[in-house]
Design a protein that fits this description.
The protein is of the alpha/beta class. It has 8 helices and 5 strands, in the order E-E-H-E-H-H-E-E-H-H-H-H-H. The protein folds into 2 domains: 135 residues, Nucleotidyltransferase, domain 5 (2-Layer Sandwich); 43 residues, no CATH class.
Length: 201
Amino acid sequence: MTGGLRMIAGCDEVGRGTLAGPVVAAAVVLDATRPIVGLADSKALSARRREALDALIRERALGWAIGEATVDEIDRLNILQATLLAMQRAVAALSVRPSLVLVDGNRAPELPMPARAIVGGDALEPAISAASIVAKVYRDRLMVELGARHPGYGFERHFGYGTIAHRQALVMLGPCRAHRHSFAPVRLALQGRFPTQQDQP
């Protein structure tokens, strides 16, 4: 509690459906005295707008934090459990302790404080919108770095999503350490088969 107000954190993840890279979650506690205009679901914003809002969120929020689950953890636990783990890590890393956590989606992780899942919350709750922006900007930058470390896959362009160019590179080059080997398109590529759009993770 700060100033008699409930401290509400928003939490969201990015990268759940990609074929490579970690799943990243962010948790944000906004400051009601320092509002941020234009918060929205990160997917509805341009990259330039996300970058500008990310800087404002980090400057004005009472607290923000990032949590990740690695490719190895995704392959070992499954993507749902790894996503919940990333969310737990993000909330645990906050410099302030929220009294309530609002999570985008239909399932909230187990936390030491009350949590509520909200379907479509990234477009409805400003704190979740802020978390989606921070997570998206952070992960996109991470994927650009992975693109430099693993050239040829185009991570810096598609950020790990299963585009046709990415699937073609998977067959030509084979998966790298950044790929999620438990996902069907990556498994097919290991067999030398071209993964189609119908091959879901």
